[in-house]
Each structure stands twice: as structure tokens, then as C-alpha cells.
Amino acid sequence: MDKERSTGAWAVPEYRWLLPSAVTRELDPDRGERSPRRTLRDWLVDFTLFFVAVGLGLSAADAMPQEENLPHALGVADQLLGALSCGAVWLRRRWPVGLAVVMLPVALVSNTSGGALIVAFFSLAVHRPFKYVAAICGSYLATLPVFFLVRPDPELPYLAAIVLTVALVSAVVGWGMFVRSRRQLMMSLRDRARRAETEAELRAEQAQRLAREAIAREMHDVLAHRLTLLSVHAGAMEFRPDAPAAEIGRAAGVIRESAHEALQDLREIIGVLRAGEGEDSGRPQPTLAALGALVAESREAGTEVALDYRVDETGGVPASLGRTAYRIVQEGLTNARKHAPGAPVGVRVAGAPGEGLTVEVRNPAPPGEVPAVPGSGQGLIGIAERAHLAGGTITHGEDPHGGFTVSARLPWAGGNA
């Protein structure tokens, strides 16, 4: 990759001296409208064109003695105008149109300014659109028959001199237009590459944002379950300091185990962030096979859970479907412990290939006073998004008797569905 000066992703490269100043201006947007300095390439081109103008002017001056009936004063004026025209070549970059327009009347009376006129036409074709080239060069070519009538070429016939001059001007203008089109093509490719790079950066930022959102959902789903156990049992110990020692010991054990599992889950999520492509980032993601362990864990924590599991696993439950169902049940149990402690929870999971998978978590109103447990509702938003991504639907809300139900319907491909 080309080395670039570190002023931005598209800063002017270190080899800018090989580029025209017009190109470096486009590549260096920090310069704004300021005129760019000539690069080394510019100086080489300018000196070359200056010497070309001087060389053609000297050739015309050598041929002047062969012209018949040429007044001495006209010859002196011709050479003086030729010298001034060669000096004016250095203004071709800043005022290409002005230089070409000024050279039109000068070239009508000065043969030695022909080289400067050719350089002016070339610069005009390089730096300005074709309409300027057509107007100015067309005006010059229209005056050629008159010019060669007044000052015929001593070495060429009248018609040959006109044809040769037209061919020379056409070749110079064509070369200038080629240089201009090539430069525009290069800038177009640069601009396209710049846009592609910007779009790639935007896509990368979007991918990072989506990854962060996925990780945030996963952290909530994984840690909220564990931390809710900690909060519920710690609250119970706080409100019942006179509870039997066995009950306090069991609650402390649940707190210790939940804290250990929360740390383990947190390590797994950190592993996901640190793992590269193809690396193992931790334990496998849970599926429906782990649903029994989740229910058993809730029962050990003191929640009465009734599991109604009617899933046809003949063809195997897809991993993504099972993981979505697991997270929905996990969030339902977490909310039940937080907002209805002591209430029994019913979990129903049923389905078959082609029929879809139904997941329902239901609990009645809490039997007593509910301790204040902080919550933001992000868990329900998260499982709703999971169900939507899986192509399913989910509903949740209170019933007239104060209970709460989470119900999801997930598609399961297969059969005649």
C-alpha cells in the first residue's frame, strides 16, 4: 500500500512530487481553495514546455531572413513579442483561458510566438472544458488562411502550410484533452475508492453496533437470571433475620452458587469478546436440552415450577430454535422470581416439526408483599426481539387476577407446514 502523510485516510501521498499540482489539490481537501504549490513534476513539465516554446520561436526567427519584403521593424517587433510570449508561458496554469485569448492576436503578427501559442493551446485543453478549446482554437484556425496570405511560409506552399498547422494544432489539442480525460478518470477512481472505503467503514461500524447489541442482550439474558436469585435470597435474609439456621444456610448456598455461575457466565461473555475467528469462546450455548437443568435450578432456589414438556424431538430441535425457547423460559422464570416471589410458575413447551413451537410461562398473583427489585423491562424487549428474529411472535402481560403470562409462538420448519 502506498505510504501517505497521516492527515487523514485520504491524505496526499508522500510521492506527491510525481503528481500534478491540480491532482494534489483534489487529494488534499484541507487546503480548501488555496492554490497548490508546484510539485517537482510541475516544474519539469513547465521548464520542458518553456524550452519547447523557446525552441520553436528560435526556429521561426532563423527562418525570418528568408521572408521577402519583411520590414525590419516588423521583424524586431516579431521577436520581441515572441520573447514576451515565451515568458508568459509560466502563467499557463493560473490563467489558461486568458493566456490563450491573448495569444490569438499576438500570433497574427508574430511568427516567433507560435511555440508559445502551441503551449497555450495545450494548457487550455488540459485545464478547461472542451467548449473553451473549441471556441479559441476554432477562432485561430479560421484566421490561418489570412495569416499565410500576409506572411507566406518561405519553405512550404500555401495549402501545405495551412494543412500542417491545422494538423499540429489538432495533435496538440488532442494530446491535451487526453491528459485531461486521463486525469479526470484517475480522480474518478480515487473518488470511487474513497466512497467505497467510507461505505466499508460504515458497514464495519454497523456490524460492531449490532455485535454490541447482541452481546448486551446475551449479558442481560445470562446474568439477570443469576443476579435475580442473588437479589431475592439476599432480600429474604434481610427481611427474615430470625429464620431457621437451615433455611439461612440454604439461601446462602443458593447465593454462593448463583454468584459462582454469574462469574462463570461473565467469563464466557468476555471470552466471546476476546476470541478470534475459529477460536472456542466458552461453553456451548444452551438449548432445549438444558431446560430441565434451568427448571431444577429454579426449584432449588425455592420457586415452585411445574414443567409441561411436550416436544417431538424425533428430527431434533434446531439449535437456534432451542436457544430462543430457552431464553424465553429463562426470562419468564427470572421475572416471576422478581415480581411474584413465592408464587408457583407453570412452564409449558410444546411443538413438533411443521407445527411450530409454543412456549408459555405463567404465574398467578404473588401471595404476599413483593420486595422492591429494580427492573427496566429490557428482558422482555430482548426476548421479543429474539422471537422476531426467529420469525415468531410473542405476547406478555397481566391477566385480570393479577398474574402474568409470557407466551411465544416460534416457527419450526418441517412436515407439511
Automatic annotation (TrEMBL):
Alphabetized PANTHER family for the sequence: NITRATE/NITRITE SENSOR PROTEIN NARX-RELATED, NITRATE_NITRITE SENSOR PROTEIN NARQ
Keyword Aminoacyl-tRNA synthetase: no
Span of domain Histidine kinase/HSP90-like ATPase: 324-412
Catalytic activity: ATP + protein L-histidine = ADP + protein N-phospho-L-histidine
Lineage start: Bacteria, Bacillati, Actinomycetota, Actinomycetes, Kitasatosporales
Molecular function GO terms recorded: kinase activity
EC number: 2.7.13.3
Domain Signal transduction histidine kinase subgroup 3 dimerisation and phosphoacceptor: 212-276
Broad EC category: transferase
TM region positions: 99-125, 132-150, 156-178
Presence of the UniProt keyword Transmembrane in the record: yes
CDD domains linked to this entry: HATPase_UhpB-NarQ-NarX-like
Keywords: ATP-binding, Coiled coil, Kinase, Membrane, Nucleotide-binding, Phosphoprotein, Transferase, Transmembrane, Transmembrane helix, Two-component regulatory system
Stretches assigned to coiled coil: 190-217
Protein name: histidine kinase
Cross-referenced Pfam families: HATPase_c (PF02518), HisKA_3 (PF07730)
